[in-house]
Recover the amino acids of this structure.
């Protein structure tokens, strides 16, 4: 019996190891670790694709009914990050309210673009292409802007169309990344509740508290959620294999707990 | 839905390479621009701009703005919206003023009404839009400029009903197709005059396209437009193409008030810049 158990542990460990390696090999490691890193990579790519001197993303801040600059690339620089606009203000506001992209140039004559604000950052764009970030569920997550077309006076229709497609992909990634963070929060909240019902929860509770502060435990949970995501996208047989492994692991954990052993 | 159906409703239909030359045959050959709108300035025609509002005292608009309404989302109201009169309308963004300015430049005697349907409440966006369109139809607007659309599937039926209502109440809906790939309502319905931007600059150069989803192409790239706070900007988008066709529609309706929506669309098609008359 003991010999079988040891074999089983060894097999399980080897299987998990192989699984992790295969997941990394399929490009899982290429995914940004956090929402902020994802946003940065999106604006940088957008600026390059559309030949823009700068680019930025504003996301919805529902509590304040505002669009908040989350990330910015190029001349506009990082001073913008954290700045908020009311929903109905400026070109970004129009794009947000209508879900329609717009391209404008000669923006210096357009007082909708808040001159004082732009001057305070020392950067006034001459051309803007602003596109909504729309989730798969038709929720507008925010607005992506590319600013100052290099080598042309304004962004054209082709830019607008391509940026629409690019923004769709970006919105899916942002939405997913936000959901993964939400899943982690929900997971943590659920576990906390569970722990509060236990007899001696101190150790686990403090570990979970730390997890909420964005330390390694949280990133592990994010990674776990992310792994589920990646695996479920691989296909039916992969999903089945992983489910089997997890079920076996869970069953093993339960039986080990009954015998007073830790699962390692 | 096949890939073909969800292709972006786009201006490439109107590029020089893809543009079809059409031939006007039979009675269509007798309909030309002189007959359709020569000497018309849009007098007596009421045009609603369903948008962000219209700045009534913008210098580009003369005194063509005759009033309007603001449609607000209100969760406590019976149909979740409220309509307030807006006798001297303003514009919260500039977009509606841009559309009004284009129409006024084409049909200077047409009366313009602002129907403001944009606001801070995101959840009520489509409700406001539908209610604003309903107001325009019920108030006998001859032409309704919709440089807005919704892509929400659950509003397919609502907007389809409104488009039918407009058709039978003799109100012509001129709708910009979405700038983003994917379906948008009401621009996809056959009773609506759908418009995308082409690359030409001349105000009266517009094309007819026989292949759905978009029927008409009009100027919409780098157009000098009025903007709110008495400004002007250069703007690009299908939003700015629709009011070109709305303006021409106003000219036709003023000169030929007896024509019904499908007849007006036929006249627009017959007079398109890619229509060749036999023997000409």
């Amino acid at each position: 019996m003991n010999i079988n158990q040891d074999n089983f542990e060894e097999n399980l460990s080897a299987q998990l190891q192989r699984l992790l390696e295969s997941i990394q090999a399929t490009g899982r490691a290429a995914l940004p670790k956090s929402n902020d890193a994802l946003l940065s990579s999106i604006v940088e790519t957008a600026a390059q694709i559309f030949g823009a001197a700068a680019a930025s993303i504003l996301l919805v801040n529902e509590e304040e009914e505002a669009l908040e600059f989350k990330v910015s690339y190029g001349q506009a620089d990082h001073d913008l990050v954290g700045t908020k606009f009311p929903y109905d203000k400026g070109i970004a506001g129009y794009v947000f309210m209508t879900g329609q992209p717009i391209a404008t140039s000669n923006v210096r004559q357009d007082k909708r673009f808040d001159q004082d604000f732009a001057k305070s950052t020392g950067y006034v764009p001459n051309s803007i292409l602003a596109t909504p970030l729309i989730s798969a569920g038709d929720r507008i997550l925010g607005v992506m802007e590319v600013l100052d077309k290099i080598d042309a006076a304004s962004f054209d229709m082709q830019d607008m169309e391509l940026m629409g497609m690019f923004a769709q992909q970006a919105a899916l990634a942002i939405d997913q990344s936000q959901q993964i963070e939400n899943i982690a929060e929900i997971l943590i909240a659920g576990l906390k509740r569970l722990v509060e019902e236990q007899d001696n929860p101190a150790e686990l509770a403090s570990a979970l508290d730390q997890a909420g502060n964005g330390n390694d435990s949280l990133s592990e949970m994010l990674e776990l959620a992310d792994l589920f995501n990646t695996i479920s996208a691989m296909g039916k047989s992969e999903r089945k294999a992983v489910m089997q492994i997890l079920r076996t692991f869970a069953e093993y954990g339960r039986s080990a707990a009954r015998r007073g052993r830790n699962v390692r | 839905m096949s890939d073909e159906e969800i292709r972006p409703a786009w201006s490439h239909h109107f590029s020089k390479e893809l543009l079809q030359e059409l031939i006007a045959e039979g009675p269509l050959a007798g309909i030309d621009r002189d007959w359709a709108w020569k000497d018309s300035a849009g007098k007596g025609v009421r045009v609603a701009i369903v948008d962000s509002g219209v700045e009534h005292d913008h210098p580009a608009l003369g005194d063509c703005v005759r009033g309007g309404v603001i449609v607000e989302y209100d969760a406590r109201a019976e149909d979740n919206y409220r309509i307030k009169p807006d006798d001297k309308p303003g514009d919260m963004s500039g977009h509606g003023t841009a559309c009004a300015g284009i129409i006024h430049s084409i049909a200077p005697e047409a009366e313009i009404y602002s129907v403001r349907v944009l606001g801070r409440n995101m959840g009520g966006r489509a409700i406001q839009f539908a209610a604003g369109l309903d107001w325009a139809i019920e108030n006998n607007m001859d032409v309704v400029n919709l440089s807005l659309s919704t892509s929400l599937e659950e509003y397919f039926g609502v907007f389809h009903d409104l488009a039918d209502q407009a058709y039978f109440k003799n109100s012509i809906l001129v709708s910009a197709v979405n700038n983003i790939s994917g379906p948008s309502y009401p621009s996809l319905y056959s009773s609506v005059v759908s418009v995308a931007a082409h690359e030409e600059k001349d105000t009266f150069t517009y094309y007819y396209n026989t292949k759905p989803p978009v029927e008409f192409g009009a100027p919409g790239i780098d157009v000098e437009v009025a903007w709110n706070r008495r400004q002007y900007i250069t703007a690009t988008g299908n939003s700015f193409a629709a009011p070109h066709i709305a303006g021409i529609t106003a000219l036709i309706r003023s000169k030929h008030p007896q024509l019904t929506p499908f007849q007006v669309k036929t006249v627009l098609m017959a007079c398109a810049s890619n229509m060749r008359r036999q023997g000409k």
User: Anything to note?
Assistant: The longest helix of chain A spans residues 157-196. The CA atoms of residues 44 and 65 of chain A lie 27 Å apart. The longest strand of chain A covers residues 52-61. Chain A touches chain B through 38 residues (CB under 8 Å).
